[in-house]
Every structure is written in C-alpha cells, then in structure tokens.
Amino acid sequence: MKNTNVYRISKILGLVRHVVGVKFIDFKEDFDALDYPMAPKKGSWCYLVRTAMDGQIFKADENSITCDYSKYALGLSKPDTTISEGRSYHFCGLYESNAIAKNITKTMRYPEHSIAGVVVGPLEMMEDADVVIICDNAEVMMRIMQGYGYKYGNPENLSFFGNQAMCADLTSKPYSNNDINISMFCKGTRQYGRFDSGELGAAFPISMFDNIAEGIIKTMNVVSYNDEKRKILDSLDNEDDLGVEIKFNCTYGQGLIEHDTAAYRKRK
Question: 243: number of CA atoms within 13 Å, CB side?
Fold first, then answer.
C-alpha cells in the first residue's frame, strides 16, 4: 500500500530494518479469517515487532504474547485497577510513590478498546495499518523528526520514560494521541527486541506516514552533505526513484547565510 514511500525513506535514511505496520483486529471472526500465519514463536511484544522488522508478517493474539503489560497496552486484556492506577510500578520500585506511578501509567494510554488480535509486519507487505514503527539510530530519529516538523511543526505529544517502550511508547501512545512519539526504549525492548544501546524508536499513526515521508524527502537536499547524497544516489535503482533531484553543494546552512545576508543588506 505504501511501497513507494517505504522504498524512498528506506534509501534516504539508510534503514537497516523494515518499516513496520501494526493493525488492530477487533473481532475474533475477522482475526481467524485473516490469511496470515500465527506468530512464529510466542514472546513479548518487543520480540514480535523485532521479528516483523526482520521481514516476517503474521498475526498474534493474547496467547501469542507473553508479557501481560504488553497485552494491556495493546488492548488484548484489561489490567486490574491497581495496575492501571500505577500501584504495581510503585510496589516494584520503579517510582517513588503511588502518585508518581499513577501519573506514569496514565500517560501510557492503555486503550479502551478490546481487540481479538493484531497483524504486524513490514509495511510494504500490509494492505492496511493503524500504527507505523521505525527503529534505528539517533540520526535516523533526527531525520524523522525533521520530516515531521516540515509538515506538522512542533510535536506536542512526546512522552517517554524508559518503560513499556515498544508496547506503550511506540504502539498505544501514537495510536491514542493520533500523533508521533519517540522512545528511548526500555530494558525489555533492548533485550528481547535485540536492539543495541544506541538505537531508538519512532512511531506515528498511519495517516501521518505519507506526509512524514514527504517531509523527509523534501528536506534531504538541505540536510544531507555531499557524501551522504552520493551514498543515497548509489543505493537507488534509478536516479529519479525519489521523485526529486538530488542536488549537491547545497545545505540549509548555506541557505541561511544567503537569506540573512540579503535581509541585513535590505534592512540597512
């Protein structure tokens, strides 16, 4: 469905893993009818998303996911009120008080919906998705935020605190807030998702994908240096694959100097 823009941003950003889509399936009848295999192995949501990033598409239900807190964040099961109020997180020592823990769990945005399961896989292999997830290094996150800023301006709903990264930061929050979110990851995501110490994640609702992709493409020439542009150009199947010309010897720094010099001259 989004193949062209998936290809374009993968080349511009130099992504090492697939862009992933997540689709919530409301009813068991519809879930059972989907022509996708079940998750190849049970595991945490972090593990399943990483499996999708490695190129597999599949469906998963409550029995496929081994982490209870992931199930709460996805809407596969409902937490006890002591959990949704944060008392379990205070009890285990992550937060200093029940009040702080309640504030944390409130911002996790556990959805009110009850679903039968999810489909997760490379976005280019999906007909539809609700949320898009991209994980890579900090510079890739910078470029995603620049693409977002180009179309939407300042992000108003960023929320992350090193806990429930893949399920809350990168799934329930962008879906519930209908906005982009960034995650610094958590220990579970780094371990079970097999991400290294320098990787981060970004996620946003599918409705933003094409606009963010356009922002990444439109800012490529002014953000990337010549060596980066040559690398992008060499990776393309055809020179016009990006839909824009790759222009050398131009950056936004040069543009700022040109603008400011002209502005100061006119002021005088």
Answer: 13
Assess whether 184 and 236 both reside in one domain. no
Instruction: Give the predicted TM-score (pTM) of the model.
Output: 0.96
d(CA 15, CA 137): 9
Cα–chain-centroid distance for residue 97?
30
Confirm if 89 and 104 have CB atoms less than 8 A apart: yes
Which H or E run includes 191?
helix 187-192
Quote the CA–CA distance of 86 and 89 in Å, as a whole number. 5
Residues 61, 144: one domain?
Answer: yes
How far is it, in rounded angstroms, from Cα 111 to Cα 75?
Answer: 6
Distance (Å, whole) CA 217 – CA 192: 32
Tell me which amino acid residue 60 is.
A
10-residue mean pLDDT profile of the chain (268 residues): values are: 91 97 98 97 97 98 97 97 96 97 96 96 96 98 98 98 98 98 97 96 98 98 96 94 95 94 94
